[in-house]
Amino acid sequence: MRKYENVEYTNPFELLFLLGSTVAVFSGIIFVLNRIMSFGLAKGILAFVLAGIYFYILKKKFIVKISDFELTSNKLEWNKKSVDFRNLEYYKIHWMKGAGIKFKLKNGKTLRISSNDNFCNSEQFVNLCHNIDSKLLKYKNGQIIRKKSFFETKQGYYFAVFMTILFVTGTVYKLFTDEKINIQNFAMILVSLGIIWSGVKWKKK
Cβ-count burial of 7 within 10 angstroms (0-12 exposed, 13-18 middle, 19+ buried)? Predict the structure, then answer.
């Protein structure tokens, strides 16, 4: 048995709710302030601060969870939950900005847990996923199906290459046509490419 202590993780759908609700809160505050204030910059700053407080409290109290995980040759246990490997139909792991794992059970239920670098200290969780992957690949001589995530496939790799070529071509075109490059857009594209390539695991055989 191997124990991983104080592992930070989230439920992907809860994380999506956090992001969506924060945008909704920000928009709602702007809507209300438009009716009672006329100072544009002040409204933006106040809305940003209040939405930031909402985001921090919800993330800290409800979204990011900390648990001890115990991994044996037959089971994964944490926070009064468990996955018995005998009951697994298949599993899938992605490695983008941390890691995430999906367990599909034979009874039809699906369990997802993840740890994103932007919201968690994901180092422990990534190590855990590597060890889960290793155990499940060997479990009963590979009887459990391991499905590849998109960026573990050839299609995912070529998609990442295509997006990179598209970005480089667009940047070079702008430079040669003397068009000004928007630094914010440039930085956002670089970050997006970094996120994409962090999950690429396909290797040509």
Answer: buried
The answer to whether the beta carbons of residues 71 and 4 sit under 8 Å apart is yes
The string of pLDDT tens digits covering residues 63-96 is 999 999 999 989 999 988 999 999 999 999 998 8
Rounded Cα distance, 165 and 66, in Å:
40
Q: What tokens appear for 113 in the block?
A: 């847990």
User: For residue 85, how many other CB atoms are within 10 A of its CB?
Assistant: 19
Strand partners of residue 83:
76
The neighbour count for residue 48, using CB atoms within 10 Å, is 13
Nearest to 93 by CA among 59, 157, 136: 136
User: Per residue in 158-171, pLDDT tens?
Assistant: 898 998 998 888 87
Report how far residue 42's alpha carbon sits from residue 50's, in angstroms, rounded to the nearest whole number: 12
Cα(58)–Cα(180) distance, integer angstroms: 40
Select from 61, 53, 81 the least CA-distant residue to 69. Answer: 81
